[in-house]
Amino acid sequence: MVRSPLIAGLELGGTKCVAILGTGPDDVRAFETVPTTDPMTTLAALEQVLDGWRFDAIGVASFGPLDLDPHSPRFGSISATPKPGWTGTDLTRRFMTRYDKPLAIQTDVIGAALAEQHWGAAQGLASHCYITIGTGVGVGLISGGRPVQGAAHGEAGHMHVRRAPGDDFAGTCPFHGDCVEGLVSGPAIARRFGRPGRELADDGSEWDLFVHDLTGLLHNLVVTAAPERIAIGGGVIASRERLFPKLRSALVASIGAYGSLALYADQLDRRLGPPGLAAMAGPLGALAMGLQAVDARG
């Protein structure tokens, strides 16, 4: 009997990092979290966890932006990021040098999208999208079963959208101000409304602005790529799944029964929703990347 490769997965997030050991969602052997602080402290804590495990490959799914150009001398490192102290942090060489195992790296949202493709609600789909809304906003787009990437990986979470009438909030993104991340991320919500999202009432008017701004992102994704499914996860939305009907209604109105997208809009109940893997989509994305590392090694 052939043994499935055992993967050490690392999901690096803006607030916390996860180390997961397993072969897939039905075989998770260990699961540890460490807070995301400075790179030296955080990566040392993750290495302490991995040092106690035996595994065949490493998968890394990290917040970004990442340098994912295989020809770049900085491949596998974090490029300019709002996360203090992390710009320039080399992830790939550090872990490969320490463990001498096959390693594959991707953005956290692409990792989660690939996990949904392997084991979740996107199984059998050629095109789909995973959006995370937490410390930041990230978008992982899959087309033809593969991540969409040009000269650099996309940063759709930083697109600018039309503002709601009378809304003059400047946004929190240090690079773009009132891009989507600067309007709907966890830190943006806290600054915009004076308290974190978890303290806002489910029926609070604050969520109307959230829905408006996020709908702008969804509209642009749909008219550009029309993904077969869009999953939205992350800490902000995980506790607010009641917002999905509002998001669907707002997106229907935004699409406006246009052309072939009219049928798409009629199908939003199945096209737009939470990830099939729920909160495990991100950590399992790191396992999915480890499996890619095994496949690439042959």
Defining key terms:
alpha/beta; five-stranded mixed sheet; single chain; 298 residues; globular
Rg value: 19 Å
H and E order: EEEHEHEHEEEHHHEHHHHEH
What is the percent of helical residues?
25-40%
Instruction: Enumerate the spans where pLDDT stays under 50 for 5 or more consecutive residues.
Output: none
- Order of the strands making up the biggest sheet: 3-2-1-4-5
Question: Helices and strands: which structural class?
Answer: alpha/beta
Main sheet overview? 5 strands, mixed
Residue fraction in strands: 15-25%
Number of strands: 10
Through-space gap between termini = 18 Å
What integer is the average pLDDT?
95
What is the number of helical segments per DSSP (H or I, 4+ residues)? Answer: 11
Shape: globular
